[in-house]
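Meet my pick.
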Amino acid sequence: MKIVMLARNAELYSHRRLVEAAEERGHEIRVVNTLRCYMNIASRRPEIYYNGEKLKKPDAVIPRIGASVTFYGTAVLRQFEMMGVYPLNESVAIGRSRDKLRSMQLLARDGVGLPVTTFAHDPKQTGEVLEIAGGAPLVIKLLEGTQGLGVVLADTDRSAKSVIEAFRATNTNILVQEFIKEAGGTDIRAIVIGGRVVAAMKRTGAEGEFRSNLHRGGSAELIKLSPEERSTAVRAAKSMGLNVCGVDMLRANHGAVVMEVNSSPGLEGVEKATGLDIAGKIIAFIEKNAKPGATKTKGKG
C-alpha cells in the first residue's frame, strides 16, 4: 500500500513511529510537508503538486496537520479526498474538532458529558456569563489555543472579569468553563481508533500547574478507564466523525467530562506510559479500511 503522511516535521516522535510502523508492515510511506503542496483545482481532474512534481495518487493519506495551518492543511486534505484517496481522518471531522466552540456544541447536542461552558460576544454580558458558569474559579480559553497555551485559570470573579474584558477588548473569542476542582490537576487521555478505546493514560500537571499537558512539564501513567469513561470517549470521537483521536477528559463528581477531542494526538506519551504500539494499531486500521472512494464526504464541506 502507498501512503502519504501530511506533516511539517518528519522528525517528531509520532511521525517517525508512524513511518516505522508502516514500513514494518511492508507499506511505502512518504512524508509530505503540508505547506509545500499546491493544488490544481481543475474540473473532474483534481491534482496535487509537491516541490514541482505531480504527486501520484496514494492509497491512503494520514493527516498530521498542525493547528496553526488547519485552514490550508484541510484544503490539501480535501483535494486528496476529491481524488478518491482514503483519509485516516476526514477534513470535515478535523475542522469540527479544531473549532472549540463548534466541537462543544456538537458534543452537547449528542449528550456527551461536558463542563459548564459559556460563550458571549458582548463584554456587557460578562457578569451573566460568570454566573452561568458557576462563578470563580473559572477556566478561560482562547478558541484557537493548543497544548495548554491560551488557557487561564481565574481564581476570583474579579480576576475572571478582568481577563474576559481584556480578551474582548482585542476582539478575541473565548470560552468560559467551570473549573473541575476535584480533578486535582490531572486529566485522562483516551486514544480512540475505529470506535474503540485502545489505550488510556492519566496526565498530571507539574507542581503548581493546573494544566496537565505533557508539553508543559506534566507526567503520564497507565490508567484503567471505567465503562462510563470508555463510552464517553467513543461517543466524543463519533460526534466529531474522527476515526483516530485523543479524547481529553476530567473526572468530575458527576462523571466524566470532555475537555477536548484532538484529531492528531501525540503518540510519545501514551506509547511510553502504556507500552502499547499505537502507531501499529493506526496502520492496521488503515489496512482494514482504506478503499478507493471510501471517504464519506468526498471532499464536500
About this structure: Residues 97 and 260 are 8 Å apart (CA to CA). The chain has a mean pLDDT of 89. The radius of gyration is 20 Å.
